[in-house]
Write a structure and sequence with these properties.
Layout: H1 19-34, H2 44-64
Helix pairs in contact: 1-2
Length: 74
């Protein structure tokens, strides 16, 4: 699914992921799952809320990850 979403954690990404990186990944995910590149006006609120919630979850995930030992890349 969402093959164009890149890994956002070091060492795959040499610097820390930005909020913009997380939002871009969240937007790609919501677009893929919903099937809409841009939602109609009557779906805009739920679409934007989903992007916000996924971006926040992504930030929490990246903040909580502890990478040990060897490096594995996807």
């Amino acid at each position: 699914m969402c093959r164009s979403i890149k890994t956002l954690r070091p060492p795959v990404l040499p610097e820390e992921a930005t909020e913009e990186d997380s939002r871009a990944a969240a937007l790609q995910f919501v677009r893929k799952v919903s099937g809409f590149r841009a939602p109609a006006a009557h779906n805009r609120e739920v679409f934007d809320r989903a992007v916000d919630e996924i971006a926040a979850s992504t930030a929490r995930l990246l903040d909580g990850l502890e990478v040990r030992g060897g490096v594995r890349t996807p």
